[in-house]
Amino acid sequence: MGLEIKIVPDAVTLAREAAQEFHRLAEAAVQARGRFAVALSGGNTPRSVYSLLASEHKQLPWDRIHVFFGDERHVPPDHPDSNFRMANESFLSKVPIPEKNIHRIRAELDVETAVTEYDQQLHDFFRLVDHDWPRFDLIFLGIGEDGHTASLFPGSKALAEASRRVAANWVEKFKTFRITLTFPVLNDASEVVFLVSGGSKARILSEILNPGAQKYPAQSVQPENGKLLWLVDEDAGSLLRLAAPPGS
Ligand code: 6PG
Fold first, then answer.
1. How does the average pLDDT of the chain come out, rounded?
2. How confident is the model at residue 215 (pLDDT cuts 50, 70, 90)?
3. What's the whole-number mean pLDDT along residues 103-115?
4. Does residue 213 carry a pLDDT above 80?
């Protein structure tokens, strides 16, 4: 597994770097396999990345790009909390991507039906057999101040999910279900990119990247045969004590 921690000056640079990484990997995957499969993160941090994809990366081969979601809130697609709505408003509705290439979690359904339906989409698109794991070319993730990632929250049931690809996860603190990809899927990706911005994430990020303690869900993202890139802005990285690169 390759691990890289990249600290950039600010949120604008972070968004630009993330959009360029999406672009680089998309071109490489389409070249190699004729298609690119990406799972998007929700929350606020990726919004500016997605907007840049619409404004500065229009020339991408969008007809070969397939967009999935790492997780979704249990709300309809037009709800203000919907991750699909955020992605659709910031870029999916502004780039020439065929509707059939957008594989959203139908979170307007009851959670178990939404999970089964999304799992079927993964099964069909990746032509999976039995309990195969889908291998995404890229998965964007964020972290919460409690160390959660996707919708894998501390103390929640789906943390231990080892056989399902998608889970309905009850989140006690929000008193609601979330629908989320599970760790085996996250850890089967070719590349996972964590996007972390702002001083409010500095403490949790320094704990997550502290190899000693293994107590936060985000620490369980360890792609077995892939790259893990932490894209962090200086405010979020302000408490990190990273070893100086050799010869510096
Ligand atoms: C979600 C996300 C979640 C998010 C973190 C960070 O649906 O909310 O998938 O895991 O990445 O909560 O969110 P912010 O970027 O808003 O801080």
1. 95
2. confident
3. 98
4. no
The three-state DSSP-derived secondary structure of the chain is: CEEEEEEECCHHHHHHHHHHHHHHHHHHHHHHHCCEEEEECCCCCCHHHHHHHHHHCCCCCHHHEEEEECEEECCCCCCCCCHHHHHHHHCHHHCCCCHHHECCCCCCCCHHHHHHHHHHHHHHHCCCCCCCCCCCCEEEECCCCCCCECCECCCCHHHHCCCCCEEEEEEHHHCEEEEEECHHHHCCCCEEEEEECCHHHHHHHHHHCCCCCCCCHHHHCCCCCCEEEEEEECCCCCCCCCCCCCCC
- With the most atoms of ligand 1 within 8 angstroms of its CB, the residue from 49, 71, 153 to mutate is 71
pLDDT at residue 143 is higher than 70: yes
* Atom 3 (ligand 1) nearest CA: 150
pTM of structure: 0.96
Nearest residue by C-alpha to atom 10 in ligand 1: 150
Choose one of 73, 90, 140, 148 to mutate for the ligand 1 pocket test, by most ligand atoms within 8 angstroms of C-beta: 148
Question: Which atom of ligand 1 is least distant from the CA of 44?
Answer: 16
Given a cut of 90, whether residue 226 has pLDDT beyond it is yes
Say how many Å lie between the CA of residue 130 and the centre of ligand 1: 30
Q: Which residues line ligand 1 (CB under 6 A)?
A: 41-45, 70-71, 83, 142-144, 148-151
* 148 Cα to the center of ligand 1, angstroms: 8
